[in-house]
C-alpha cells in the first residue's frame, strides 16, 4: 500500500472488517473469502446475501428457508405505496428511494428493539423490499400501476417482472442475478463508509441506509453508470468514439465508468460485465452499444492508462435489456443493500464511534472586530 493521503482518505485504513477483501494490484475481489468470479458463475444473489451476513455459505435447507423468508417480506406497506404516488414524477428514482426508505423506518415493526436479532430482521426486510420499491417507483413515474411481487421467482427475476409486468427471459434473469452478485459489496466504498459512520453513532439502520443511498447517488460513485449510458448515447456510433474521448480528455472532463480509487488494474467485475454486455447484445442482435463501449475503452486506456470499472459495461448491458438509465443506480442499490446491511450489522456488533480529525489549515487566532468597523 502506498503512503496514505488525507485528501479523500486515500489508502487510509479506517477500520477492520471480515466481509470483503479487494486486491487493487492484482484485480481480485473476495466476499468472505470467496472469489467474486466464482460467486458470479455459481451463486444466486440470495446465497450471496446470506454469505455476507453470516460469514458462510448456506446449506440447502438454510438457503430454502432464507429464500422463503425473503419472498414473504417483499410486499410494501400501503403507506409506502401511497407515498410513492405523491413523489413528483420528475424526481430521480434515487431521491425517491432515499425518501421511501426513510419513511419505511417510521413504519418499522421493531421500532424500539435495537438488538442484533431485530437488526437482522430489518436487514432481511430491506433486501426483500428494495426490488419492490425500485420497481414501484419506476412504474409510478411512468404513470403505470405498481406490479405486486410474485413468490415463485428469484429476487433477480422478480425485480425484472415487477418492472416490466412480464416475466423475463431466462437469459435476462440470469444476467440480472450476476449483476446483483457483482455489486453486492465492495469494502469501505463511500456509501458503505457513510452507513458505518451513521451506525457507529448507534443511530438506527434506516438512518444508516438513507445516508448510504445519498452517497451512492453521486456521479463519482454509483451515479456513474447512468452517466456512462448518457455518454454512449451522445457518442452514437463506434466510429465517433475516438474523437469524442480525445476532445473530452483535452477539455479535462472525466470519462464516466473509468478509473478507481483502489484498482490499479482491471476491476474483476468489469471483466465479467464486458462478457455479459456482449452476451445480451448478441442475443438481442444489437451490438451497437457494446461496440461503442469497446471503442471508448480502447481510447481511454491508450490515452490515460485507465481501466473500466463496474459502472462501465453495466450501462450497455442494462440498456440492451430495455432498462431505462435512471434505474441503473437504483439497481446498484437493490444489490448493495446487502453489503450495506452486512457492514451495519458488523459495526453494531463491535462498535466504536467513528470520529476522525482534520488537519487545520485555516487562519490562526484573529482579533474580534465589532460589526460597525468591518
Ligand atoms: C473513481 C474516481 C472518483 C476515483 O478518483 P480518485 O481516486 O480520487 O482519482 P483522482 O481523481 O485523484 O484521479 C487521478 C488521475 O486520474 C485522472 N482520472 C481519474 N479518473 C478519470 C476519468 N474517469 N476520466 C479521466 N481522467 C480520470 C484524474 O484526472 C487524475 O489525473 P491527473 O493526476 O492528471 O490530474 C475517478 O476515477 C472518477 O472520477 N471516475 C469517473 C467516475 C466513476 O466512474 N465512478 C465510479 C467508480 S466505481
Assigned CATH architecture of the largest domain: Orthogonal Bundle
CATH fourth-tier homologous superfamily of the largest domain: Citrate Synthase, domain 1
Envelope shape: globular
Radius of gyration: 21 Å
Q: Counting H and I runs of at least 4 residues, what is the number of helices?
A: 16
The molecules bound to the chains, other than polymers, are: coenzyme A
Name the strands of the widest sheet in spatial order: 1-2-3
| Parts with pLDDT < 50 across at least 5 consecutive residues | none
Tell me about the largest β-sheet.
3 strands, antiparallel
* Assembly category: single chain
**In the residues, how many domains can be counted?**
2
Average pLDDT: 96
Cα distance spanning the termini: 49 Å
Coarse structural class:
mainly alpha
Summarize the structure.
This protein is mostly helical. The protein has helices at 36-42, 45-54, 60-72, 78-86, 93-106, 116-141, 155-164, 170-183, 190-199, 205-216, 224-235, 241-250, 268-284, 288-304, 310-320, 328-349, and strands at 20-23, 28-31, 34-35. The protein has a three-stranded antiparallel β-sheet.
Amino acid at each position: 500500500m502506498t503512503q496514505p493521503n488525507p485528501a479523500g482518505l486515500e489508502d487510509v485504513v479506517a477500520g477492520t472488517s471480515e466481509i470483503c477483501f479487494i486486491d487493487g494490484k492484482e484485480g481480485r475481489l473476495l466476499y468472505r473469502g470467496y472469489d467474486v468470479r466464482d460467486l458470479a458463475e455459481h451463486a444466486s444473489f440470495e446465497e450471496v446475501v446470506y454469505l455476507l451476513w453470516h460469514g458462510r455459505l448456506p446449506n440447502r435447507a438454510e438457503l430454502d428457508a432464507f429464500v422463503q423468508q425473503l419472498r414473504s417480506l417483499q410486499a410494501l406497506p400501503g403507506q409506502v405505496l401511497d407515498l410513492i404516488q405523491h413523489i413528483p414524477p420528475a424526481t430521480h428514482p434515487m431521491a425517491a428511494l432515499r425518501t421511501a426508505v426513510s419513511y419505511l423506518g417510521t413504519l418499522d415493526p421493531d421500532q424500539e428493539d435495537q438488538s442484533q436479532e431485530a437488526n437482522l430482521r430489518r436487514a432481511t426486510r430491506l433486501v426483500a423490499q428494495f426490488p419492490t420499491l425500485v420497481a414501484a417507483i419506476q412504474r409510478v413515474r411512468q404513470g403505470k400501476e405498481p406490479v405486486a411481487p410474485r413468490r415463485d421467482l428469484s429476487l433477480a427475476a422478480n425485480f425484472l417482472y415487477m418492472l416490466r409486468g412480464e416475466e423475463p427471459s431466462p437469459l435476462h434473469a440470469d444476467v440480472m442475478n450476476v449483476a446483483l452478485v457483482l455489486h453486492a459489496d465492495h469494502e469501505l466504498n463511500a456509501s458503505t463508509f457513510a452507513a458505518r459512520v451513521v451506525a457507529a453513532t448507534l443511530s438506527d439502520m434506516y438512518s444508516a441506509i438513507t445516508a448510504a443511498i445519498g452517497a451512492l447517488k453521486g456521479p463519482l460513485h454509483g451515479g456513474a453508470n447512468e452517466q456512462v449510458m448518457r455518454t454512449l448515447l451522445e457518442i452514437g456510433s463506434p466510429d465517433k468514439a475516438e474523437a469524442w474521448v480525445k476532445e473530452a480528455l483535452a477539455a479535462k472532463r472525466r470519462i464516466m465508468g473509468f478509473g478507481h480509487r483502489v484498482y490499479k488494474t482491471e476491476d474483476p467485475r468489469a471483466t465479467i460485465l464486458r462478457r455479459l454486455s456482449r452476451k445480451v447484445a448478441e442475443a438481442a442482435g444489437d451490438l451497437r452499444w457494446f461496440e461503442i463501449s469497446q471503442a471508448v475503452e480502447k481510447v481511454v486506456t491508450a490515452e490515460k492508462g485507465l481501466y473500466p470499472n463496474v459502472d462501465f459495461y453495466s450501462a450497455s448491458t442494462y440498456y440492451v435489456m430495455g432498462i431505462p438509465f435512471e434505474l441503473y443506480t437504483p439497481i446498484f442499490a437493490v444489490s448493495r443493500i446487502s453489503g450495506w446491511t452486512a457492514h451495519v450489522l458488523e459495526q453494531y456488533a463491535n462498535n466504536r464511534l467513528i470520529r476522525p480529525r482534520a488537519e487545520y489549515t485555516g487562519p490562526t487566532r484573529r482579533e474580534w472586530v465589532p460589526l460597525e468597523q468591518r
